[in-house]
Amino acid sequence: MSLALFRQRLTATPLGGRGMLAASLVCFWAFHFIVLWPSSFSQDGADQALNLGADLTWVIAVSCNALALLGCVVALSRGVTVHFERLARLSGLLTTCGIGLIALRAVWQGAPAGAAFLAGNVLFGVGTGLMMASYADRLRRVSPQTTFMALSAAFTVGAFLCLLFTLALVPLARWVAAALLPLLAAYFYGRYARQADDGKEETSNASAASSASSPDDFPLSGLPLKSLLGLIVVVGLTAGVMRGMSHLDSDVTSAGPLFVGSVLVGGSVLFALSFLIERLRPTLLLQGVVVVISAAFMALAFLAGESMSVAFVIHTIGFLFFVALVWLFCTFLGNGRSGGTRLFVIGLCANQMGQALGSLGYLGLVAAVGSSASALVPASLATVYVLLLAALIFFANAGRTRRAVPEVAPQAALQLPLLAEAYHLTAREVEIGVLVAEGKSRAAIAEALVVSQETVKSHTKHLYQKLSVHSRDELLRLLEEEARQAAEQQVFL
């Protein structure tokens, strides 16, 4: 295959033209894995103190991460102009300084070393939080499939880099490499941002945004945001609980290849699924994640800790799926909306808060009962109960919302033929638009009109472009506003 043909095929993929964004995400997750799991690959245990996750101060890092995201939410809610490219550079510097302070503990003993380690945790948490907020601003402009693919690729390649650096480099070189990766992540982010701002990707992003919100691809119209955020917090909490359990189990903490192997398997499966994401329902994937994580904790409860390694693998893969879905949902919610970045950051903040609460809760339970073995069963069962309860509340509210939408949709859909002349809509676009507004799926529309699904997708895309909307929700809001104005004119006359 020629190089030109390879580039052409690469450009045709959802990640085509966004290599800098993917490279930035790879660096971002790679230094996370290296910093959080270095002692897992240590032959002599000399750098055990550098393992951020084995210390209680890891909770401080995650809390600072959530606080940084919360600060961005507050700023965006108040209409403050945030320059995300500058924010990414700042986050790279803060994270690099944080990793440097953490690494000083290997050569510097005593009270000052503890203070430096604590300060490193704070800088690491704030820096990574700001970087995630920067990603939110860019990922909300691409299709959810692109986000899903980029994140799964970042998991896989990031885990491979973690394995390579920790096995091939001496501890000092490993930490130098880990400290440079945040700067590389910020650099690649800046390159991608400048490319997009120069207009090189505006066309592809616009087409991705219009096609990504197809009602058949992502049937999320009207999903209850509060219930979704609550579920995100709870699943983040399960990650914190599992993290606390694994840190108190020496067999799991010393099995670094188990972690990397889990990430490699999970990331590879996610990357394969990303090519099929348009044919999968994200809500169904979310149900699968809840089942997988529940199964991990039930294994722990019934086998009383003997299956810690198995549960750890199951939970790691399940949590990777959940993280990818959180970013997928956030991309969909933010796609084409003026407040999209804020919604994206809110979702990420909820996830990090859940992780901090889960870690604190489990460590508190261990302190109360006196040992990890005593806390294992009640913590596992309570976590499953809370997770299933949150899932039931979310899906129940989602079901009520979807049932309520069609009651309004038919009335609003009647306004679409009246807009045909003003917006230069074709007869076929009006016909398909009415069915879309009524909540029909792409497959149902294709069957009713005896056309292919690609034809339906093409007409829907053109309809959205002419009406300057990006999803069925926005289409309904436009039609409802038109209906309201028409009713007011009737009353006035």
UniProtKB/TrEMBL annotation:
PROSITE patterns: HTH_LUXR_2 (PS50043). It holds the Pfam family GerE. Signal peptide: none annotated. The keyword Iron does not apply. The chain crosses the membrane at residues 20-38, 58-76, 88-108, 114-136, 148-166, 172-190, 228-246, 258-277, 284-304, 310-333, 345-369, 375-396. CDD domains: LuxR_C_like (cd06170). This is Helix-turn-helix transcriptional regulator. It comes from Adlercreutzia wanghongyangiae.
